[in-house]
Amino acid sequence: MNFNNKMTTLEEFIIQRQLDFPFASGELSNLLRDIGFAAKVVHREVNKAGLVDILGNFGAMNVQGEEVKKLDVYANEHFIASLRAGRECCGVASEENDDFIAFTDANSRNSHYVVLMDPLDGSSNIDVNVSIGTIFSIYRRRSKQGDLARSEDFLQRGTEQVAAGYVIYGSSTMLVYTTGKGVNGFTLDPSIGEFCLSNTNIRTPELGKVYSVNQGYYSKFPEGIRRFIDFCVEDDDATKRPWSMRYIGSMVADIHRNLIKGGMFMYPPTTDAPNGKLRLLYECNPIAFIVEQAGGMATDGYRRILDIEPTELHQRSPVYLGSRNQVEKASEFLQTYEARAKVGVKA
Ligand code: P6P
């Protein structure tokens, strides 16, 4: 068997980097390990979902006679189970649950962290074999150690995150995370069941030539965003436009491509959804942390995503993030046309 001794597994990397962050008591390392374990379990199910789904068409049972669960419910249950069993966090908030879950066993109550997550974002794409993802965010708890987790543990600004990451279940399964000391990517090697370091210190290009938005909502966007989209598709050699529009409809897949190759992703407000669609705490904040750590920018059009003071667990936020040059341009258009509208200047 060919063991490439230069291969670094996720666990080895976390331990090597353990000295990078304060309170290096191994708890955060174990927490990241628990997340990595659940991601391997979800990977296994995502990879056969198409098969199970076909079998599931003949009723709600699969070949093992088990109930065919919706994959996002399955993912949610397994991430929560792994975090509960790992006892390295006192609670978890999930896109799938109305309220947060406070773990009651003594070890969990004595831990220092909470996790927020979208266990399987974009799961509606699984039926058409499009990449989907898990997004997670880790904070130090604010409530007293030993007590049950409280809402103030979860309602923290993005700047307070101690770690954040995503798993992309695509042509390969990758886990990408940061603890505030850069961004690193690990590719799952199913033959050994390990995430192996594959992308060291990911940096996103300053200027990308891709923009990602659901252009179908063009008429519902603010004036400034409509003008920015017109700018993206203008023919201008000097600024290397028109940019290409790439939109998968699965945030993690769009973000991952833009992070590696450059580009910007936006989910602006619309007349139907004045705060956009994406959730601040477990979609925008963790991705914003990663994008900033990779040298990019993440705003709601007016301020850093990470500076937003949250008030509700599932609150939404408009989001523009990715290559700095492009995100700045989008914010500039948005604010310029808003100022014009305020003084009644016709476009
Ligand atoms: P729309 C998937 O449902 C999701 O939450 C993100 O992964 C994705 O970027 C967005 O919604 C797509 O939303 O309105 O463009 O279909």
Note down, in words, how this protein is organized.
- The protein has 347 residues and is an alpha+beta fold.
- It has 2 domains: 190 residues, 2-Layer Sandwich (Fructose-1,6-Bisphosphatase, Chain A, domain 1); 131 residues, D-Maltodextrin-Binding Protein, domain 2 (3-Layer(aba) Sandwich).
- Helices cover 33% and strands 20% of the residues.
- It has 9 helices and 13 strands.
- The strands form 2 sheets. It has an 8-stranded mixed β-sheet, with helices on both faces. A 5-stranded mixed β-sheet has the order 10-9-11-13-12, sandwiched between helices.
- β5 and β6 form a beta hairpin.
- α2 runs antiparallel to α3.
- The radius of gyration is 21 Å and the shape is globular.
- The structure holds 6-O-phosphono-alpha-D-fructofuranose.
- The site of 6-O-phosphono-alpha-D-fructofuranose has 8 residues, from loops.
| Strand runs, count | 13
Provide a count of the helices.
9
Series of H and E elements: HHHEEHEEHEEEEEHEHEHEEH
Range of strand content: 15-25%
Helical fraction equals: 25-40%
Structural class by secondary-structure content:
alpha+beta
Oligomer: single chain
Unreliable stretches:
54-59
In round numbers, the mean pLDDT is 91
What is the correct CATH architecture of the largest domain?
A: 2-Layer Sandwich
CATH superfamily of the largest domain, called what? Answer: Fructose-1,6-Bisphosphatase, subunit A, domain 1
How many strands, what sense, and barrel or not for the largest sheet? 8 strands, mixed
Number of domains: 2
- What fold name goes in the CATH topology slot of the largest domain? Fructose-1,6-Bisphosphatase, Chain A, domain 1
